[in-house]
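Hi support team,

I'm opening this ticket because the web form for multi-chain structure prediction keeps timing out on my end. I have pasted the exact lines I submitted so you can reproduce it. The total is 441 residues across two entries, so I didn't expect it to be a heavy job. Is there a limit I'm missing, or should I split the entries? Thanks in advance, R.K.
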Amino acid sequence: MCLAVPMKIAEIAEGTAICEVDGVRREASLMMLEDAVVGDYVLIHAGFAIEKLDPLEAEKTLAIFREVLEAGGGVEA
Amino acid sequence: MKYSTEYRDPELAKGLIAAIAKDVADYAGQITLMEVCGTHTMSIYQHGIRNLLPAQVRLISGPGCPVCVTPIGYVDQAVAYARREQTIVATFGDMVRVPGSSSNLQREKAEGADVRIVYSPLDALAIAEKNPDQSVVFLGVGFETTAPTIGGSLLEAEKRGLKNFFVLCAHKTMPTPMIALASDPELKVDGYICPAHVSAVIGSDAYRPIAEGFGVPCVVTGFEPVDMLRGIQLLVRQVLAGAARVECEYSRIVKPAGNRTAQAILFKVFEPCDADWRGIGPIPNSGLQLREAYRKFDALTALPVEVEEPREHKGCCCGEILKGKLGAKDCPLFRKSCTPEHPIGACMVSSEGSCAAEYKYGDC
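Hello R.K., no limit was hit. The queue was backed up. Here is the completed structure from your submission:
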């Protein structure tokens, strides 16, 4: 039930964002994310944007995964 | 899909699986990790994660499916609203097939009741606006991810002056049952895979009392397979090191303090209350009820209806399954009288229930 999809904000009008993912467009209320701007990736759940996605943190997490892979399954530093 | 596909990379998954196997290679005991989110349950089954892990790591499912933990009396109440004159019941899709004591919403709809499946509570609000001569009852089920969307819709209903929009509220809050299960001596949970999107709202710091007070490691992880494996690896490492702290693998979404605006909406509209968890029983302060100022939207007080006496189905093990004490296959009804076509318990009917996941993806 708590599934939410990361979508990119394409437009904002009167507290409602038009969000896009893979060509699908959907309206989402920004009531819980008042500082969101066009271009932000946000998580959409039940018609509301519930959180912004932090691209730097996303990259950091992936970098850690790659380190694990490069260590050949060994213990990372 | 950006920010999803990268976390499904099979090479990264293989690396993490090998790393976990290496970590536990010399460990003779068993590490039991519990997930408390239906979407994690589905992800574990969908990606076959149980079969990829070394024998020392055991995954069990807890009370993470909000539909499954909703008491049968709630479904009976919703059925009573469906039978009420001039009433539209609006709900998320997962509630319509949940069996009540003698009926369910799908059957009521087939018999002529106006039951509508919506994607968002805002859609239910629009139905209320379009049907001013009808009462619209929205079924407010869900944890902290979903509750603010219902809270936000009530704020909007008030702004628009709607008098025919009501909520049948059965929201539950997450960290409390985790504490109840952590202190259950029969159930040895070595670590919690903490919910992803509940944590987006409440923040990863919400689990500190569990790690610090009960010595159970907590790791917040995302739903993609690589996220889950990394979360499992972090938990395994904490258990092996004898540590108990909160870590967040899902930092691209979850912040330590969560989403404060969403929390403010929750606080404005709801207050904590004792709640009944199907299978677990009553847990103090583990639910949400409408505050006095918003009680005019409470279906229970605004629209009284006669409800049948709740009767649980005999032989159904959902209760023990929701506590993680039994697996779906331990229930004598599983795959026999209880199937997704003819579900007897909530864990089979909800697509995120352990029994439905085991039926769909488990070994035959």
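A quick check on our side: The mean pLDDT of chain A is 89. Let us know if the file doesn't open in your viewer.
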